[in-house]
Amino acid sequence: MAGSLGRICKGLKRLGSLIHPSASVSVRATFARTMLQGLPSSFFLKPRDFSLPNSSWGSEMMRLYKHYNSQCEVEMEGGETREGPWQRLPSYNRFLKYAPGGVYLSKIIQSKARLFTRNCRDPGATFEYALYFNSEEQKCVGIFQAGHLLEGPPGHVHGGAIATMIDTVTGAHATILSGPVVTANLNINYRRPIPLGSTVLIESSLDKKEGKKIFITCKVTSSDGSKVHTDTTALFVSIGVSHLLLGS
Amino acid sequence: MAGSLGRICKGLKRLGSLIHPSASVSVRATFARTMLQGLPSSFFLKPRDFSLPNSSWGSEMMRLYKHYNSQCEVEMEGGETREGPWQRLPSYNRFLKYAPGGVYLSKIIQSKARLFTRNCRDPGATFEYALYFNSEEQKCVGIFQAGHLLEGPPGHVHGGAIATMIDTVTGAHATILSGPVVTANLNINYRRPIPLGSTVLIESSLDKKEGKKIFITCKVTSSDGSKVHTDTTALFVSIGVSHLLLGS
Predict the structure, then answer these.
(1) What percent of chain B has pLDDT over 90?
(2) What is the least distance, in Å, from the CA of B157 to any CA of chain A?
(3) A13: three-class secondary structure by DSSP
């Protein structure tokens, strides 16, 4: 066991940055893309990107998607395009199968394991979301459509499902800023319930960095920003790869 | 719309206590049982209790289940039994279908909606848990086996899935103590990751009550109590039924 873990760590250390341990989509994306870029494309099956629109996305989700996507590329004079201020972050339901080292990892981690927020095959039933990062403003935004299987209060989203999306967005943000991290604290104020089926905005802002600590604030609002559903402070701590895998 | 909501509220107010808006299992149970007790048994289909053992439960989960169940009934001299200090709380994946008033509620809330923690048909894949309440000690305990679809960090449970179980146990606890409540704050310190497939204990204790506020502390530990995975403070606020349904 220790030998296997040693090989895992050794292999993964060579890979540089790794995903955020709270299952951040952006980090999985970064990690998977890093892997894919360094190897022949035929070496891997192309993973499905879950943050692209599907038939379940409603008009408000599509409006927000188009809004942020339009700022990922900016048209210049002459018709050429350049990168805009925002970047869409793809999202997969597992990263290990696409990573060198997976041959060892699969001995430890069940092959059936899937990212919590991407474990449902029924489009629209649970978490539908896409994340965007703005490097100039050091902000991260999530657009989130809540499915009917996320119920807590009658007709409304479970507090744990809201916490899950907050952890996902802020964790992705922290990882982009500082590499591999763990969630150390989530302090969530629930102000207003979120109706099932509705689309909300999750906005994550860097508060400060102190050594290995990354302090982030996050607001979940209605899609037009007029109603605050939750406000949160989150603390993440940078970690090494061995810490992540050994879970110590 | 307003008229429908008015009828819903009027109908539900007559019912007395209602479920906790963070989808607490115990409250759903209490609510459903209250409904069932007041009506002919043939009036409803018997709902499935998800907190009973199934084939996915491992040895540690079964050990804890038997441990707490053995304290729900105590054998007296002469072989008779009486209620013990603990009470197991059944758990359903929806309560509205068993409640009078559902005819109105179903117009608003999608018929497919399911409790977030009980939305998966595959035994063992997500949340396997049972809750117990001790009225003498005013404590609530959850035994929780984490499935392979709850992944966050590689091989470990997502921070949001942990938050979900904390909200479930503490929310159930607050509702038993004070009737219908909403989660106002969850402040979670993540100390140690939880491996997928493992069984943990979630212990909820009443800190204090101040007017409508219920302050609760909660620890998630390894099943033998030796390792602390998270510690949490939670704040719940008592609400009226109309607040719960209108989501204001």
Answers:
(1) 58
(2) 8
(3) helix
